[in-house]
Recover the amino acids of this structure.
């Protein structure tokens, strides 16, 4: 069916069930950033493939809301779909809950799937419609009713993540979590976030490419730690989980278990802890017998964001391996670009192939962004095998890629100069580098969040009346999500202070629609700097090792401190990578990292 035919069918179901406004999400029941195809109802209905998007349908209108990373991509993918693009956060653009509230008639009904619509979203919508006598119907999945040949969920086995990689056992993590629960006065903790569950139980899976976790819920109290998942996937881990005191139960028993826990409580009401941003609102019915305490972010999110000594040591090694692959990729690129036969798809395959030659590689940490010229203006563009651009020996090529290794996760972006570029392009490339350096070398007081630091990266842009419609950096998981909270560097408020042991990216960019995109990204580690009478000061340590293309830099735009930072960084890259390269590769790297 075409998108318009799907819209017609959806509206027929809305009419039959008395629903005036229907909200469609791309969420799974765990509010994951990237979701298996089975759950991505936005993509099915609209054709939009980005990681952030919500659709709203009425009898006469249909809209899709997404953020600045996807404006260009969404315009292209929504063409002819019947859905209008709403640029979230732009002036005079209502956000989708306000639009839904305004579109619903007094006494009308707004529907959504309570399994995938979070508690926080439902509470917000409920507050908006409170005085309009609008009913919220959360027990309907109208898209599911019309979705023919819906993709299956993964049956890939769940496997153990060895403590030699992650540095802490399940028992140690559960003990630390229960201590935090005591501090919050909680009797039971309902955990819905799949990456947090995978981290807590030292398990991994493969629900989709770049997603090394699995469909699950968890319940933790002071006597039991329960994992609810597809038992058919657990053959490899049943014994070790039982040995470590983890109880396995089927996925569909999670709500019933929570309800029974509340019912059997004998001393007043138990206190149930949950994250309203990660838990489907349909779960609240099961906890009706509890006093519910909200926990945002999850306790486990705060715990896993600060990497332990084993993880930090492994991350240094894995980023060296990753840097070796990136050096070999760039050499291959420069040797082959003149042929006129290399495509963006070839680029993505080659990057993964070279990473796969390294120890402990599992899979790419996300689909590689290999974007040539104008395609790179779409921040999250990924090439398809058919119809992608052929790389020419001219202009910019942006490659944003990373690896999931058993001993860590990587994320790095380089923009390559493939031939002659204009003065404007060289200026923009250098501005991105100046922004990158401004953040990488900052010293800051403990307690600062990424929001406090974000402006440092934007000042070189703002000085030139430019900006980028994305955050500047995000946390990275350990053999988990490549985007991990609670830390981040963005204009959006963040309450998570940057803490030693956190891993975060530094990735400002310039995106000129119809022309090119530029991004320079390294991964940073938060480390101690000095404590004195004025307080505790922290700084960043770069742990990505890969040359920045000197051919794109206008050295006259760099001040002495910026040139020194770049030369010191390139000296570090050579020092880290050279012992792992052949003699000819060492010569190539010496030239690529020469001082300017």
């Amino acid at each position: 069916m075409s998108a318009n035919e799907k819209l017609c069918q959806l509206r027929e179901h809305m009419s039959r069930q008395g629903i005036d406004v229907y909200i469609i999400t791309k969420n799974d029941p765990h509010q994951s950033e990237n979701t298996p195809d089975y759950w991505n109802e936005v993509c099915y209905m609209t054709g939009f493939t980005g990681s952030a998007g919500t659709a709203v349908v009425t009898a006469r209108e249909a809209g899709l809301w997404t953020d600045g990373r996807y404006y260009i991509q969404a315009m292209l993918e929504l063409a002819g779909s019947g859905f209008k693009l709403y640029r979230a956060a732009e002036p005079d653009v209502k956000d989708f809950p306000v639009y839904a509230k305004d579109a619903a008639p007094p006494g009308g009904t707004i529907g959504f799937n309570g399994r995938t619509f979070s508690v926080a979203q439902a509470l917000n919508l409920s507050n908006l419609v409170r005085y309009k006598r609008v009913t919220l119907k959360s027990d309907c999945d109208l898209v599911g009713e019309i979705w023919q040949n819906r993709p299956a969920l993964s049956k890939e086995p769940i496997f153990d993540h060895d403590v030699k990689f992650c540095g802490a056992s399940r028992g140690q993590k559960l003990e630390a979590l229960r201590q935090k629960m005591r501090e919050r006065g909680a009797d039971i903790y309902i955990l819905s976030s799949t990456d947090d569950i995978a981290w807590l139980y030292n398990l991994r899976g493969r629900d989709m490419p770049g997603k090394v976790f699995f469909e699950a819920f968890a319940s933790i109290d002071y006597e039991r730690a329960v994992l609810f998942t597809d038992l058919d996937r657990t053959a490899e881990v049943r014994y070790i989980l039982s040995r470590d005191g983890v109880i396995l139960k089927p996925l569909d028993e999670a709500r019933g278990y929570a309800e029974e826990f509340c019912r059997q409580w004998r001393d007043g009401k138990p206190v149930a802890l949950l994250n309203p941003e990660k838990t489907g609102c349909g779960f609240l019915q099961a906890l009706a017998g509890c006093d519910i305490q909200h926990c945002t972010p999850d306790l486990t999110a705060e715990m896993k964001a600060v990497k332990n000594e084993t993880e930090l040591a492994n991350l240094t090694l894995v980023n060296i391996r990753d840097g070796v692959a990136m050096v070999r990729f760039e050499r291959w690129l420069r040797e082959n670009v003149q042929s006129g036969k290399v495509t963006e798809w070839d680029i993505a395959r080659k990057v993964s192939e070279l990473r796969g030659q390294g120890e402990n590689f599992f899979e790419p940490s996300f689909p590689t962004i290999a974007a040539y010229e104008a395609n790179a203006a779409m921040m999250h563009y990924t090439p398809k095998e058919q119809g992608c651009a052929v790389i020419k020996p001219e202009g910019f090529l942006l490659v944003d890629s990373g690896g999931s290794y058993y001993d860590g996760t990587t994320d790095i972006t380089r923009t390559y100069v493939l031939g002659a570029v204009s003065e404007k392009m060289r200026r923009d490339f250098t501005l991105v580098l100046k922004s990158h350096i401004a953040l990488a070398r900052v010293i800051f007081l403990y307690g600062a969040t990424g929001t406090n630091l974000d402006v440092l990266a934007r000042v070189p842009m703002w000085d030139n009346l430019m900006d980028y419609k994305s955050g500047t950096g995000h946390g990275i998981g350990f053999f988990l999500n490549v985007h991990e909270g609670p830390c981040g560097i963005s204009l959006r408020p963040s309450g998570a202070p940057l803490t030693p042991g956190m891993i975060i990216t530094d990735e400002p960019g310039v995106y000129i629609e119809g022309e090119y995109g530029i991004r320079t990204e390294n991964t940073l580690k938060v480390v101690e700097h000095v404590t004195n009478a004025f307080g505790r000061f922290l700084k960043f340590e770069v742990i990505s090792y890969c040359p920045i293309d000197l051919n794109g830099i206008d050295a006259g735009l760099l001040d002495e401190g910026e040139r020194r930072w770049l030369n010191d960084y390139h000296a570090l890259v050579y020092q880290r990578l050279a012992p792992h390269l052949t003699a000819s590769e060492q010569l190539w790297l010496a030239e690529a990292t020469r001082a300017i």
Remarks:
- The longest strand covers residues 522-532.
- The chain has a mean pLDDT of 96.
- Residues 306-592 form a domain with the Creatine Amidinohydrolase fold (CATH 3.90.230.10).
- DSSP finds 18 helices and 28 strands in the chain.
